[in-house]
Amino acid sequence: MIEQFKVEGMSCQHCVMAVKKELNKLEAKDYKVEIGLVEVDLQKNNLTREQIKQAIEKAGYIVVE
Questions:
Q1: SS3 label, residue 32
Q2: Residues near 50 by Cβ (< 8 Å), separated by ≥ 6?
Q3: pTM for the full model?
Q4: pLDDT tens digits, one per residue of 45-55
Q5: Among the four 1, 25, 41, 49, which has the fewest Cβ within 10 Å?
């Protein structure tokens, strides 16, 4: 199941790379990161919504609920 996360504060490819770096630390493999949007298949990655949210926030951005 693919979950979408709307993200505030991302404005360039550097921002995209920062989020990807944090997702890679979780060993996520099936995801897509664009400016303002992160899509992750939680089941394939065996991750929770909270883990993804924390990774995005650790990169310095805000998840819009």
A1: strand
A2: none
A3: 0.94
A4: 999 999 999 99
A5: 1
